[in-house]
Amino acid sequence: MTGPNATSTSSPTAKMGRHRSKSTSGSTYCISSPGAESASLSTPNNAGRSSGEEEEKDGGVLFYVNRTGFPIDGVTWERMWTHVAKVHPDGQDISKIRNAAYLPKHPVPSVPNFKPTMSVPDWLLAIQNYMKTLQYNHTGTQFFEIRKTRPLCGLMETAREMIRESLPIKCLEAVILGIYLTNGLTSVERFPISFKTQFSGNHFHHVVLGVYCNGRYGTLGMSRRQDLMDKALTFRTLSDLVLEFEDSYRRYQHTLKKVKIGLYVPHDPHVFQPIEWKYLVLNAARLGREDMRKELEKHGRDMRMKILKSSSAQSPIKERSRGKSLSPRRRQSSPQRRHIHRRDKSPAALDRKPAELSTLTDGYQIRI
C-alpha cells in the first residue's frame, strides 16, 4: 500500500506471516494498512533511513537494514518482528500473524515487459504500477541494503535481487529499481532528487527518481503518500516539478529545507562508477521560492544541454566520433574534483571548505 486511499487484495496477515526467505520470490511480506499511511507525515515517528550504521534514526525513530542478504538470518528476522510490533499502528496483531495456522500465499507480481508500441509515459506508468504492486515496506526494516557509494553495476545487481525476492520496498530502493527498469529506454534521462523537510522539530528525508523526456519532467518512486512519489511526465521545467513536491509537503505541514539534484545516470548497467546523487544543493529555507526556481531552471537547462552529464556516461569513442579530443587534464579528472566543483547555493557555502569524497554520502537519511 502506497497511499492513504490505496487498497489491497490481501490482508496484512497474508503479507506478514510468511516463513523466512529461501531466496525465492514473495518469501516475506510486511504489514500494510491505512493506519500506517495516515500516520506517516502527520507524526514524526514513522520514518527511517539507510546509511553506514546498523541502527539509524530519522524523525527520532530507529530504522534497521538487512545487511546479511538472503536468506534472512535469525537475528535480523526476530529483530524485524520485534521492531514492527513496537512502531506499527497494528503492531498488536503481530502475535496473531506469527501464530496463525494458515496464511494464504501472496501472489508474486510480474515484471513489466516493454513493447515497441508502448509510449514512454505508458512504460513509466507500467514501472510505477509494478513498484506499487510490490507495496511499501512498513516493517521498519529495509530488506535491501543500498550503499550510495557502490558502483552502478553493483546497484543493478541489487535491483535484480529486488525483482527476484519481490519484497516491499522503500524510497531509496525504488530509485535503484526504477533506474534498472528504464536502462533500455535511452530516450529517457534519469537523475535522483532528494528532499530534506522539517516537521515538529524533527527532520525527514526522501528521494525520488527524476525523469526527463521530450521536454517534460516527471518522477518515479515510492512513499507512504501518493503525492510524494510518482509524478506524471507533464512538467515543463525542473523547477515546476520540484515546487510541486514542495506544495505536496506543505499539505502535510512539512517545511522544505533542502533539495539535492544529481546528474544523469548512465544507461549502461555495467558502469563501474557511483551515481552522482547531489551535484546541486539548494537551501530552500534561505534561498526563497523565487531564487530556488531560478537556480533549478538554470540547472535544468544545463542538464538538457548535457553540460553536466557525468563523464561515466560518455566513452572516449563517442567523444572522438564527435570530433572532440580529451586533453590529459580532462582525462585525469577525478570524482573528488567533480564534488569540489559541485554547486551549493546555500549562503553558508562560501564559508565552508569542500568536503572529502568519503564524507559526502555518509549519514544520508531517507524520509519516505
From TrEMBL:
Chain segments carrying region Disordered: 1-56, 298-356
A Pfam family it matches: Vasohibin
InterPro entries listed in its UniProt record: VASH1
Record field: compositional bias (Basic residues): 323-344
Biased composition (Polar residues): 1-13, 39-49
Active site per the UniProt annotation: 171, 206, 223
GO biological-process terms attached to the record: regulation of angiogenesis
GO cellular component terms listed in the entry, alphabetical order: cytoplasm
Matches recorded under PANTHER family: TUBULINYL-TYR CARBOXYPEPTIDASE 2, VASOHIBIN-1-LIKE ISOFORM X2
Record's protein name: Vasohibin 2
Organism: Oncorhynchus tshawytscha
Gene: VASH2
